[in-house]
Amino acid sequence: MKLDVVLGLQWGDEGKGKIVDVLADSYPVIARFQGGPNAGHSLHFEGNKFVLHSVPAGVFRENTINIIGNGVVLDPIIFRQECEAIEKLNVPIKKRLKISKKAHLILPTHRIIDAANEAAMGKSKIGSTLKGIGPTYMDKTGRNGLRVGDALSENFIDRFNILKNKHIAFLKQYDFQYDADQNEKEWLEAVEYLKQFEIIDSEYVINDLLKHGKCILAEGAQGSMLDIDYGSYPFVTSSSTVCAGACIGLGAAPSTVGKVYGIFKAYCTRVGSGPFPTELFDKTGEELRQRGFEFGATTGRPRRTGWLDLVALKYAIMISGVTELIMMKSDVLDTFDTIKIATEYLINGKATDQIPYDTYAEIVPVYKEFKGWNKDLSSAKDDNNLPAEFMQYIGFIEKETGVKISIISLGPDRKQTIFRNE
Ligand code: GDP
Ligand code: IMO
Ligand code: MG
Fold it and tell me: Which of these, 39, 122, 186, 282, is most buried using a 10 Å CB contact count?
């Protein structure tokens, strides 16, 4: 059976949590493959809202196996808080969730390094979520990291102290006040909590499930334009957010990949620093923020907003070989008279349809204008009765990208979802 992959194609927060929760109905296994608690994936169902940070979005579905893969970085404190909140809803999470031995642990000192680093960068800061993601992946690739499986070994506390002391030495370069012992007790207790879960050799479990006919849905975090290689470096996260990252982060061979669902908002948002060519600083941008309730699910920061960027979208589709598009938050555009899509960039007066290498290039987007549909779409049930202006908008995106939009989301709730041509 196949590994289908859900990816954000923009700068994160496209609505991956909602879509994974919706699709989880037809997948027996959901697996996170990269990122960590920098993610905030929101789910709305039966009148409730839930934001997940480390736990896969299949956890609310009965009979679903959820796996935190080896590519993920895990903060035991945040993980415990999240799981205990889920347990309060009578969800038997310890039965539904398995964790890879090879997932790396975020230590309290990783978070301190993140904060010290951002503070030292001043105006040129990345705008990190300050969850310790970058420093943890640095230790992973630097071959210093501690993994979930290490928590099972007898000398775990010694290894923890060795890494903590390395961090204290590293922090000497910064003029930054901190308490290295802060949260340590809570962290070690949270590691004990973590050990109550099934800690697995996830690459074997995943390949076994595939071999035995189970389809797996891989849940991406962040978005393609935040990818460590293909995003606007250095304003990126520290993991591979593109399709290939699902293979690395789960131990599934590229030949097992089936559908690649690419999720995008009908417009764009970004939280944190870095280029955003179609960003709007006017009242239209504010209207998008208010109507889309564009405030970070992890940090609460207001998200930057702008029109859809086809140059970036096509790039993300190319890198991941997206086979189906899913358009989110279409309802947010319901009130606009004119809607724009950037089709190419002008850089130094020259037109291009490629993302420039130079992160600091001055980009002037070239827009195509569309007439707005001016109709409340939030309760539409199928695409037969959607306004002609809306169909023109999505038809243009499909023609330009060459990929079908197979799902349209018209509101945060599970039910506000249209599956096209079913
Ligand atoms: P994720 O990180 O990709 O899972 O996305 P987030 O949860 O951070 O942000 C998406 C936000 O949009 C959440 O508040 C969702 O509840 C909300 N949302 C998802 N789909 C839709 C939609 O189609 N319409 C509207 N209005 N909101 C949506
Ligand atoms: P989900 O999964 C939006 C952004 C941060 C910052 C940059 C680096 O909810 O879509 P990091 O904490 O990784 O060092 O931050 O990446 N970022 C996200 N933006 N959604 C996310 O996750 C993000 N995770 C990280 O704002 O600009
Ligand atoms: Mg989010």
Answer: 39
